[in-house]
């Protein structure tokens, strides 16, 4: 046994570090935190703010193993990550494993390379209690906010909801942007574009320098242009340059991976974590743009060898954020000679980091900007053509340019022909197009991260979990917004003739952008009305600053908590006692058939429409909203349409047919089969002919594509991708097969492999008891119904082999299950018979529509 025990937080990190330290060191993983606040209950003494940490059930065995390893070691090296979370992991390990200061050493490093690890071993320190306290303050404050605000939401809005300090502010950003979009009134103007020809027939595309507010003004201008003698009024050429962006921080990496690679924030951080743990990049949670001198030198050598000395321009960047830790580095490669790695997804992100770091140390790109002014003395406004020529590509050689979502669609990177002042030009075509102003764009994941960082809300480690949480809670989603259509006027001048057209233009559509859900809006409005300070952007940023002060030793964390709670708790009590219930209710109008009020509101099962009042003698009727509708914008007419669903059509092939809306959207029900109506199609427009078409498409999709041993084989696409189905067995079809053109040999091969795998799956099976012994990825296990149980070790503390498990009796397996769940075989009480409920017309609880493609 090694005298040196190193504990890190991840197995991948342990594996990489073990390579560098050799036989004198044993490296073990704690698999993250070994203890935390309890899952049930707050776990905090509110009189002292002392947390009651406990080892989670799934970590007890691991802690026992670590304690045994500690006893055999002379020195324990705590090597968790260098941030506050990593410092807290080290502290929890020291506390739980009862490590004495003289026998423990804390080491940190920015990268997992041999030099960095050996240097860290040579320069150990003790645990930084200030960093630990900053993490404890965040954990405790966020637990208190969640535990005290969430029950208020259960009481005042809907059971099962939850609130969080940073997450609720992120939802507020999304909700406020949506409200801004709804209230936006577009303003129309006419923009003029012209294509002009020089004497050699080369085209010059130009824009009029002024827009016209009125159609008549644009038309008058075109009338004048018809007889104008256009010429070059001015040519201006200016040198310019473009400089590279700083190396990546956590935030900028998430934004760039989103725009260039299409990765979401969570996926980006998962891949970056792997790159760090496998030694390819420096630590990926950082808000610093610093580079070490060693990195600057490494980049310089690589640039000179790959591109030449003229491309090298070493520089260091300074971080604008006052909270950034300059001792940290930006995210960069650990070795500039490694340009790509084997794993495709990892390599894409690695190359992005590699190119960004290299570009940051490269010379500016030199460009030449040319502006040509075109006009005639009788015209009040002139046209302008802009172009750019790259004289020296500099950093663009490594990184290129990608425009952000906020930049104009037009770009100037075009080459203009040589012209001289006074040179005559003819117009080929001049077009005046009606354009409408647009509201601010909805947030993408990258845009939301950028806004949170700009407001000082959260820190590098919080962006990804925050964005994941608000989606998991279903406060926001990325549903597709169908575009609307409006008419626009286009007036063209060509061949001395003016032509006017009215065209249809789509606007307002969106996809892969954050949109608040109904419940998200209602919760946000309730919180902003009743907890103004907690939801205030400035307050949330100030809390982050307090955590920074605690980390720097400038503030005591329990004093901060006392000050916060003395103001927060009375507000909780006041809101719980005095605030009105929130349902987001809107009175839409009166139902012309019944004369009753029509409301849109949040109900027990989500957003719904209600006709009538709850205290009426005749109970109200309800209808669920369709996808894309929400209670804040639905009209009375749209709401009343929902009560026409479901409706019946004529039978098809002897089976009843109906049209309705369920959990997965609108559907046609044919017998017992639910078939999704195509996206964007109004279910109310589905008549008998259309329903028969949808059923025929379903029959065609479900038709056998082949047979296997005389049984039909069908195909489909589910949540795990394309598959074929034989009997009740689903077989995934890997990418190496041509799914659209599967041969009989392909099908035989796929099903044979699946059946062989299934045959090896069961060691023993008792179908009537719903119990089996199965081979799993991590070894044999017991399955009872849907639950899985461990197989205990034998009396001699060794594991059972598969052959031995074939001899185990059912009674013995039941004993193993009972030892882990004493109530596993207890008789379930029959539920008491319910009284028949009063019959009510409702579509809110209709059966869920199933996807048209089978699920596995």
Structure description:
With 856 residues, the protein is of the alpha+beta class. It has an 8-stranded antiparallel beta sheet with strand order 11-12-13-10-9-14-16-17, covered by helices on one side. A 4-stranded parallel beta sheet has the order 2-1-7-8, with helices on both faces. Strands 19-20-21-22 form a 4-stranded antiparallel beta sheet. 32% of the residues are buried. Helix 5 (129-156) runs antiparallel to helix 16. 34% of the residues lie in helices and 23% in strands. It contains 22 helices and 34 strands. Mean pLDDT is 88; it is low at 404-412 and 833-856.
Mean pLDDT over the full residue set: 88
Radius of gyration: 33 Å
Stretches where pLDDT is under 50 for at least 5 consecutive residues are: 404-412, 833-856
> Which bin fits the share of residues in helices?
25-40%
Q: State the end-to-end CA separation.
A: 48 Å
Strand order of the main beta sheet, please? Answer: 11-12-13-10-9-14-16-17
Give me the count of strands.
34
**Sheet having the most strands:** 8 strands, antiparallel
User: Which secondary-structure class do the elements indicate?
Assistant: alpha+beta
What is the tally of helical segments?
Answer: 22
Determine the strand fraction and express it as a percent band.
15-25%
- Gross morphology is globular
SSE blueprint and pairings:
Layout: E1 4-8, H1 11-21, E2 25-29, E3 35-36, E4 44-45, E5 50-51, E6 54-55, H2 60-71, E7 75-78, H3 84-96, E8 104-106, H4 114-122, H5 129-156, H6 165-183, E9 188-197, E10 203-208, H7 215-226, E11 231-242, H8 250-261, H9 265-277, H10 293-306, H11 344-360, E12 365-375, E13 383-392, H12 396-399, E14 426-436, H13 445-455, H14 463-472, E15 476-477, E16 484-494, E17 497-507, E18 515-516, H15 518-530, H16 537-551, H17 557-578, E19 586-590, E20 597-603, E21 606-611, E22 621-624, H18 636-641, E23 647-652, E24 655-662, E25 665-670, E26 673-676, H19 688-702, E27 706-708, E28 711-718, E29 721-726, E30 729-732, H20 744-759, E31 762-766, E32 771-776, E33 779-784, E34 787-789, H21 802-805, H22 810-820
Parallel strand pairs: 1-2, 1-7, 7-8
Antiparallel strand pairs: 3-6, 4-5, 9-10, 9-14, 10-13, 11-12, 12-13, 14-16, 15-18, 16-17, 19-20, 20-21, 21-22, 23-24, 24-25, 25-26, 27-28, 28-29, 29-30, 31-32, 32-33, 33-34
Helix pairs in contact: 3-5, 5-16, 5-17, 6-14, 6-15, 8-11, 8-13, 9-11
Protein name: DNA topoisomerase 1
Keywords: DNA-binding, Isomerase, Magnesium, Metal-binding, Topoisomerase
Subunit structure: Monomer.
